[in-house]
Amino acid sequence: MGSMNLNLPEEFLVPDYSGGTIGNVPATIAALLGVPFKGLRPLASPLWEPLGQAKRVVLLIIDAFGWNLFQKEQENLPDFTREAHVAGRITSIFPSTTVAALSSLWTGLAPAQHGMVGLNLFMPHYAVTMQTLAFTPSFEKHPNALIQAGLEPEKFLEGPGFAEQLISGGVPTYAFKGREIVDSALSKMHGRGVAGDTGIVTVADMFVQMKMLLESKAGESMFVSAYWPTIDTLSHVYGWDHAVVAAELWAILAQFQREFLGGLSPAARRETIFLLVADHGQIHTPVTQQIYLEDHPALQQMLFMAPAGEPRTPYLYVKNGRQTNVIQYIQDNLSEAMVAVPSQTALAAGLLGPSPHASVTEERVGDVLVTMRSGYVLLTERQRESAKKMVGRHGGMTAAEMQVPWLGYRLDA
What we know:
Strand content: 15-25%
Helix content: 25-40%
Number of helices: 17
Largest sheet: 7 strands, mixed
Number of strands: 18
Strand order of the largest sheet: 2-18-9-1-8-6-7
């Protein structure tokens, strides 16, 4: 991959889409299940081949369970976390944000390939920047407004859904996620081809229902994907290393050990593999590192709209012919806080994934891709109040945001 010619600072971790990212997890699961797969390659073989072949794979995605949090809390976590048959450290995709990461986990493609390249995406056809969690204009919440305007969630991502590829190979997919998001546009986008989509109320509810599914279909092939968001929610509010986050992580994993792992019969465990991963980590973003566009009128005047993307990785749309001036301004005045490169250069270098890219990617990453150093964020004045409540964030390329644990278990071993 050509990312090295971007002259990125050493604190940045460039994702290795050839076998070191969460985007490589679907191909890994397909390989464990013996199902043909088109997309990124599997993870490096030591991270999965020792598990052997299986008929059933269960994947638990804990939002924002970064490697930093795993390392800090490892001694205090339930026993099973230290007894994995394969274990390692992989990275998120870039940008390291939930909508892009979950889209990679539901397609086996990199962000540039599936087209979901950030939280706020400029949609030229609708002349609006869309917040992709709710398919709403970014400036005010009107949930599903873009769907009412004609956008179809099931057609949003390029490439087939992971569940569609698995069912072609005879393996049905069952998804578990919060009740409040089970019918969301994002869920419909990701869930193409799923056999069952269960909305759950609490994490205990999820683990008990997963166990019941495995017991009721003992001996049957399946892929189970479970997603839980509370580590991310709490890390945004308190920071990833807060005692509340540690307590929540212990509660999730202890319930998992007791209600799921501890309760499975030998028949339900047979030929079953369990995998644990996160979509990204988090970094502290202190108020002292908030940069407001309005404080840089010369820069603001060269842009024709507010930045898209997100505060840790903004996409800048510049007035005609001002791309070089924008990059020069950032280098001269903001280099301690951010790195700016032509978006085309970042795409060509494979930063958001290898070719071929989705047809919409180029227009969605703007003219200048900015990614923030340390704990800096780029905001606009209207975000000032909400920004005070966001102690932690993600979306950038620092180790804290990019590195996540990867644990694999053969449940009949």
